[in-house]
Every structure is written in structure tokens, then in C-alpha cells.
Design goal:
Layout lengths: L2 H5 L1 E3 H4 L6 H6 L1 E12 L6 E14 L4 E8 L9 E9 L5 E6 L4 E7 L6 E8 L4 E8 L3 E9 L5 E10 L1 H11 L7
Antiparallel strand pairs: 2-3, 2-11, 3-4, 4-5, 5-6, 6-7, 7-8, 8-9, 9-10, 10-11
């Protein structure tokens, strides 16, 4: 489901905007997150589905670039996990970041409301049609986002709740998403 790609950072910084300790976020560094992405009816009353999500977030070039790698379980027990790479590039010295993914499935902007990159809004257009608008908030403990997917056959509300985790836990969670040996 294409929605999973746009889940975090952007989903991820989209998908969220920083890595590890707050001090690393603007200066640079890598942070790791793990948690749930949940999908609901547009009004948020009817749950559709949810998935685990592990995120590696790299803040580069003094905060001018953010690379997020999102890993989610495959569609079946013997399927490889899905990996989505999203890049955010700051427009000059503003708080607006142009965002796109490696698969060229979406483009748009993430606009931060503060120089610490702790709160933001999304304005994303999907190549296949539709849009994602929403907001996110980063703290020392987690990243939380809420996004509306519209202009598609199944509009929905997407909520992410990702906790900050050490690198070793991130790697363990990604390994758990892999199918048993030889099943791929």
C-alpha cells in the first residue's frame, strides 16, 4: 500500500525532523525510532490497519539535509520488509524543506515552525494522485504525526507514534521484520 511510504517522515520528518538527542537535530547526527503507524477513516473513528515502523534519521550538512530510511514489515510472513528512503532539503536558510522519496512517488514540502525543528506541517502531493497534509511534533522521547490522505479512492487519517530507541534496538527491530532464513 503506497500509504505506508508516506507514513512516517514524512514521514519521517516529514517523516519528523531530527535524530536522537535534540542537540543533534540541527547540528547533525543519526537518531533511531520504532513504533506504530495507524490508519483510520478520515474522521479517525474507524481503525483500518496498523503496522510497525523502524526509522533511521540522519541530519546532515548542519541541518540542511535530512535522510530518513523507513523500514516496515512485508505484506506476508515470508515477504521482505519494505524500505523507503526520503530526503528533505532545506530551502536556503528558511524553515521550509523540499521533500521527495527515492522511488519518486511523492514530492512536496515540510515546513518547520521553530529553528529547533521540533514542530512542522506537511504539504505533499502523490505522483499517483492525492495529497497528504498534516503536522508532526518531536520530543526527546518520540515523534508523533497526524496526516490526512485525500484525493484518493480510500482517504484516511494516518497517525504515527514512534519512540526514540538506541541503534542496537533499531537494528534488532529491522532484523525481526525479515522472513525466516531462505523464505525470501
Amino acid at each position: 500500500m503506497e500509504v505506508f511510504k508516506v507514513g512516517i517522515i514524512i514521514i519521517a520528518g516529514v517523516l519528523s525532523a531530527c535524530a536522537g538527542a535534540v542537540t543533534l537535530k540541527a547540528a547533525g547526527g543519526t537518531a533511531y525510532y520504532y513504533g506504530q503507524v495507524s490508519f483510520f477513516s478520515p474522521d479517525g473513528k474507524l481503525p483500518y490497519n496498523k503496522t510497525d515502523s523502524a526509522v533511521k534519521r540522519e541530519v546532515l550538512d548542519g541541518g540542511a539535509r535530512i535522510i530518513e530510511t523507513v523500514t516496515q514489515p512485508g505484506s506476508g510472513h515470508s515477504m521482505r520488509p519494505k524500505e523507503f528512503v526520503t530526503e528533505l532539503k532545506r530551502r536556503k536558510k528558511t524553515l521550509v524543506y523540499d521533500v521527495s522519496d527515492a522511488g519518486a512517488t511523492f514530492t512536496g514540502t515540510v515546513t518547520y515552525k521553530d529553528p529547533g525543528l521540533k514542530t512542522w506541517t506537511y504539504n505533499i502531493k502523490l505522483k499517483a494522485g492525492g495529497a497528504i497534509k498534516g503536522s508532526g511534533k518531536l520530543s526527546l522521547e518520540d515523534i508523533r504525526t497526524e496526516k490526512q490522505l485525500s484525493g484518493v479512492s480510500r482517504p484516511m487519517l494516518i497517525k504515527e507514534d514512534l519512540k526514540t530507541v538506541p541503534e542496537r534496538e533499531y537494528k534488532m527491530r529491522v532484523d525481526e521484520m525479515r522472513p525466516p532464513g531462505g523464505a525470501e
